[in-house]
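User: Just a sanity check before I run the rest of the batch. Below are the structure tokens for the first item. I only need the designed sequence back.
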């Protein structure tokens, strides 16, 4: 019961010094923070429950009090859950309109705009912000409005990411940020942060780095402020190719996001991308799954799109590594089988030689007893026998020397071979060799692929069957997860469109794969040219 609390206390103490602490944070720190995330979220839920209790016990006729009760609920939800944050922003607007208070109306519309932008709803964000009449609003609200408009154009530019529209959006965003910076108090968090953000967008990275490090070294930042500062600063180091520093900043940002129960975050997603590029597929996969959970919980549409782009790459790399391991195992099995065949052949030759030598020795002995008169011939026979014995000794010595090398390579078979050779159980020896079942290994590989794929796409079979008439739909056998038809389009859904690669993975010819695809598409109720696109639209978990 006390372990999660103790861990939370230790993690709090370890991060108290923030950037002044020279001890670098590691992925192990982040993994422990992820494990403790439910405790932080439970604390957030308790705060929300307390705020809701205050709201439900308030006089519904006291609009001033009602507005004040909605504000903390919005703040609790704004980076935690989009639907709830949007709900309370609308409640704020509804109450402000009933109060007919222009400042509160502007305040409420700004909160609605923030929710929409955080969820990636760009058109709705602009529509909401265009309804705001900023004239006569207090400087704090005007600054927030200009900053939000600047963020809107920055995010829109990042989303488009092209050479034509993005520069126009960045220029508009910079103009709004200039207006916001004139109204923010110099030296405040928002003044310094938005100055750094503007310098990044303007291409002045050294100036941006100075401003953001100045901010990051402060000790009065909240966890959320620390997270967005470190995450933004990491973009500069990524651009400059200083990946190690970027990873350190993203780890710090991700831990701060977890501590503040922030679900609308890009830090852990960006960290997963960097680790994937470095070849750390295991941690990249773990963190991309955490990013998916956060994006789904919050309801961030643009984050789901980003995650869906890299997730198939990471999972494909994992499958490729499993394939490589299986190929290595199969190669080793083939070599082992060949070595066993060589050992068996040598053993048969030696035993036959021994048998022949025994027969020759017997004949020589009989001849020696019967024909005493032919000493010369007996001596000659004895010489031949001596020579044969020497050959036998040399051959046996060679066999055991070779045998020791073979047994060193196939240690798993040593005890079985010694026993079966000693007792001449040749049938058992052949059975031992034939027990290496490469076909079974390939079947297990495909079954493992099926299980991983269906874990990612649990509705794939249902989505696939929707594209066919009832009588043409796939009916799997009891022991099957996927059949060949489904595996071909499962690989396509994972992003593998090259027929040659699909053929190599499934061990078919390219012509066979083309035949399967053509037959399946011809049965579909959708046009052939749209079939693969409909497959790609099947959603993951």
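Assistant: Here's the designed sequence for the first item:
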């Amino acid at each position: 019961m006390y372990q999660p609390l103790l861990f939370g206390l230790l993690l709090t103490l370890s991060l108290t010094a923030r950037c002044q602490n020279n001890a670098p944070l590691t992925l192990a720190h982040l993994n422990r923070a992820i494990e403790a995330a439910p405790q932080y979220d439970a604390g957030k839920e308790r705060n929300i429950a307390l705020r809701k209790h205050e709201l439900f016990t308030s006089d519904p006729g006291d609009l001033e009090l009602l507005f004040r009760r909605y504000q903390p609920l919005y703040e609790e939800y704004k980076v935690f859950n989009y639907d709830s944050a949007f709900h309370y922003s609308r409640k704020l607007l509804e109450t402000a309109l009933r109060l007919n208070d222009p400042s509160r109306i502007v305040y409420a519309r700004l909160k609605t705009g923030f929710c929409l932008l955080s969820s990636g709803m760009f058109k709705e964000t602009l529509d909401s912000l265009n309804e705001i009449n900023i004239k006569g609003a207090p400087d704090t609200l005007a600054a927030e409005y200009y900053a939000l408009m600047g963020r809107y154009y920055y995010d829109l530019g990042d989303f488009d990411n092209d050479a034509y529209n993005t520069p126009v959006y960045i220029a508009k965003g910079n103009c709004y940020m200039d207006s916001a910076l004139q109204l923010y108090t110099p030296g405040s968090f928002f003044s310094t942060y938005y100055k750094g953000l503007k310098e990044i967008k303007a291409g002045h990275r050294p100036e941006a780095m100075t401003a953001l490090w100045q901010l990051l070294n402060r000790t009065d930042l909240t966890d959320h402020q620390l997270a967005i500062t470190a995450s933004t600063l990491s973009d500069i180091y990524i651009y400059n190719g200083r990946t190690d520093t970027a990873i350190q900043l993203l780890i710090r940002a991700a831990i701060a996001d977890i501590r503040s129960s922030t679900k609308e975050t890009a830090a852990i997603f960006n960290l997963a991308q960097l680790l994937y590029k470095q070849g750390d597929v295991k941690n990249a996969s773990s963190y991309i799954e955490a990013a998916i959970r956060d994006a789904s919980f919050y309801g961030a549409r643009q984050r789901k799109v980003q995650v869906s782009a890299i997730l198939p790459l990471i999972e494909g790399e994992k499958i490729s590594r499993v394939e490589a391991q299986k190929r290595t195992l199969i190669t080793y099995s083939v070599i082992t089988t060949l070595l066993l065949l060589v050992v068996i052949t040598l053993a048969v030759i030696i035993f036959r030689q021994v048998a022949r030598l025994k027969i020759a020795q017997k004949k020589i002995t009989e001849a020696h007893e019967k024909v005493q008169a032919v000493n010369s011939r007996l001596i000659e026979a004895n010489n031949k026998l001596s020579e044969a014995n020497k050959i036998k000794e040399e051959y046996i010595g060679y066999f055991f020397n070779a045998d020791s090398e073979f047994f060193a390579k196939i240690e798993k078979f040593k005890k079985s071979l010694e026993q079966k050779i000693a007792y001449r159980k040749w049938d058992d020896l052949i059975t031992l060799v034939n027990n290496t079942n490469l076909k079974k290994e390939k079947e297990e590989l495909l079954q493992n692929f099926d299980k991983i794929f269906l874990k990612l796409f649990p509705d794939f079979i249902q989505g696939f069957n929707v594209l066919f008439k009832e009588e043409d739909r796939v009916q799997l056998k009891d022991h099957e997860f996927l059949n060949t038809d489904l595996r071909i389009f499962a690989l396509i859904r994972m992003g593998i469109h090259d027929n040659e690669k699909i053929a190599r993975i499934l061990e078919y010819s390219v012509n066979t794969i083309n035949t399967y695809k053509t037959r399946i598409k011809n049965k579909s109720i959708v046009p052939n040219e749209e079939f693969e696109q409909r497959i790609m639209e099947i959603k993951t978990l």
